[in-house]
From TrEMBL:
Gene of this entry: nnrD
Protein name (Swiss-Prot/TrEMBL): Bifunctional NAD(P)H-hydrate repair enzyme
Domain YjeF N-terminal, residue spans: 10-219
Ranges of residues in domain YjeF C-terminal: 227-497
Functional summary from the UniProt entry: Bifunctional enzyme that catalyzes the epimerization of the S- and R-forms of NAD(P)HX and the dehydration of the S-form of NAD(P)HX at the expense of ADP, which is converted to AMP. This allows the repair of both epimers of NAD(P)HX, a damaged form of NAD(P)H that is a result of enzymatic or heat-dependent hydration.
E.C. designation(s): 4.2.1.136, 5.1.99.6
Lineage: Bacteria, Pseudomonadati, Pseudomonadota, Betaproteobacteria, Burkholderiales
């Protein structure tokens, strides 16, 4: 399991470990681990020049300890110390003393050109750790801006400076900066912020070193990274003695005037993901058939009985009175429901619909908002949602008693009990119209085939992103990938993982 720990949880683990270890032990282990990774990043290079940015506190101490170890090898190590030595904690002062006694050059940070006189092979970022709360400004901002122009590897110690370990947002918001690391060495445990919001862009390749802390000090995590193992138990090969009724019905509800493509995309995905029968219930006039996939069955929404079918409601639904009435019936249905797009907007605007969704606690409900839809549901701004995506997803799941899939970079899947899973697949190719409809159709198909709602949400998000990753690897995107192209890629992937893991 790829566990994720909040800042508070990391602090608790660290405190418990320190109580049983000699002082300075964890800083020595952190410095050694950082030096090992740094050496691996410069292996094979000649005339190696390592720049270490050391800030206040223990994160700076880890960087100074790494400088001490690196100085023992045939490379040039330079430290830019941005800290008041008299205010450093005890362990960091000891690390500073060890670095000064080593063959380490300390740059004059008062000299504006102290960074630019050398061509750096590697930069190690030890400016701020997980406790940073204020945005980077002044001379340090100029330093970070300079580092972000370099083409060499940049190794962040524990967390890229300027990035929130809990949320993945850049501290201070719009206009503020963070170190754009190519690699992050995360100590004790992995952190949510490295995998959602801006975290993916600023953390690079993340590795974790638990500093040999005993397992007894680690609490059960409330967050983890999404991976195939979390839903592998739901993967089942198809038996020979089956028929279309064995794989359930999906009813996609939407298709207001001018938005008929959205439910078609969702329905095509549901068919490609294995649903036995797929219906599209149009709130406006239904076409006779889908000329590309005539197996999809077209209906008028007000004539459809939902029964126990898996219902996907919202793609291209609109917000008319008719759409409202159809949504009300869908929420009253006894089968699993996936709620997306305009259905979410209507729920956000009407307390009565919110109560209907909350009262479905005994039936599977999955909501799939993007940040703007999430903001409407929580009566917040999009900026507030993005500033703490894990918390926003938790609030959505708890308030609406549903599984919440908060889409975006590092999609967050949240459950009513407060647990979250952050998705690891996907790329900017999915930033195009219709991909959300594809995701909702995939959820609907898995639910129709009897998948539990938890595994459905995890698998759908993971496969949706993984299919886009595979397409990009083939040269299809990230620019110009269309939602329609994702559909057959998901089908291929689903069959592959069933063959390999069921």
């Amino acid at each position: 399991m790829s566990a994720l720990y909040s800042i508070a949880e990391i602090r608790q683990i660290e405190h418990a470990a320190k109580a049983e270890l000699p002082s300075y032990t964890l800083m020595q282990r952190a410095g050694e681990a950082c030096a090992r990774q740094a050496l691996s990043l410069v292996a094979g290079d000649d005339d190696i020049h390592v720049l270490i940015l050391a800030g206040p506190g223990n994160n700076g101490g880890d960087a100074l300890e790494a400088a001490h170890y690196l100085s023992q090898f045939e490379l040039h190590v330079a430290v830019a110390l941005h800290a008041d030595e008299s205010k450093q904690p005890e362990d960091a002062r000891k690390a500073l003393q060890r670095a000064r006694e080593s063959e380490v050059e300390f740059l004059d940070v008062a000299d504006a050109a102290h960074l630019t006189r050398q061509r750096w092979t590697l930069v190690i970022d030890g400016l701020f750790g997980i406790g940073q709360t204020r945005p980077i400004g002044g001379k340090l901002r100029a330093c970070v801006d300079y580092v972000n122009t370099l083409r060499c590897p940049v190794l962040a110690i524990d967390i890229a400076s300027g990035l929130s370990a809990n949320t993945g947002a850049i501290i201070g918001g719009a206009g503020c900066v963070a170190v754009r690391a190519t690699h992050t060495l995360s100590f004790i445990g992995d952190k949510p912020g490295m995998h959602t919001c801006d975290g993916q862009d600023f953390s690079g390749n993340v590795t974790v070193d638990n500093l040999d802390i005993e397992e007894k000090h680690f609490s059960a995590p409330r967050a983890q990274l999404n991976e195939l193992a979390l839903f592998a138990s739901a993967l089942k090969p198809r038996a020979g003695n089956t028929h279309k009724g064995s794989y359930g019905d999906v009813i996609v509800v939407g298709g207001a005037h001018g938005m008929g493509g959205a439910p078609v995309l969702a329905a095509r995905m549901a068919a490609h993901a294995g649903s036995g029968r797929v219906f599209i219930a149009f709130v406006d006039d239904a076409p006779a058939y889908d000329s590309v996939h005539p197996e999809l069955m077209m209906r008028q929404a007000d004539r459809v009985e939902f029964g126990a079918a898996s219902v996907v409601v919202g793609p291209g639904l609109g917000t008319s009175r008719h759409a409202h009435d159809v949504l009300t019936r869908a929420l009253d249905a006894h089968g699993p429901v996936v709620i997306d797009a305009d259905a979410l907007n209507m729920i956000a605007a009407e307390p009565g619909l919110q109560h209907k969704l909350q009262n479905r606690a005994h039936h599977a409900s999955i909501i799939t908002p993007h940040p703007l839809e999430a903001a409407r549901l929580l009566d917040a701004t999009t900026a507030e949602i993005q500033n703490d995506r894990p918390q926003a997803a938790r609030l959505l799941a708890r308030h609406f008693k549903s599984i919440a899939i908060l889409k975006g970079a590092g999609t967050v899947i949240a459950f009513p009990d407060g647990d979250i899973v952050i998705n690891t697949t996907g790329n900017p190719a999915l930033s195009t119209a219709g991909t959300g409809d594809v995701l909702s159709g995939l959820c609907g198909a898995l639910l129709a085939q009897g998948w539990p709602a938890t595994q459905t949400a995890l698998a759908a998000v993971w496969m949706h992103g993984k299919a886009a990753d595979q397409l990009v690897d083939l040269g299809v995107g990230p620019i110009g990938l269309t939602a329609s192209e994702v559909i057959p890629a998901v089908r291929t992937l689903l069959n592959q993982i069933i063959r390999d893991h069921a």
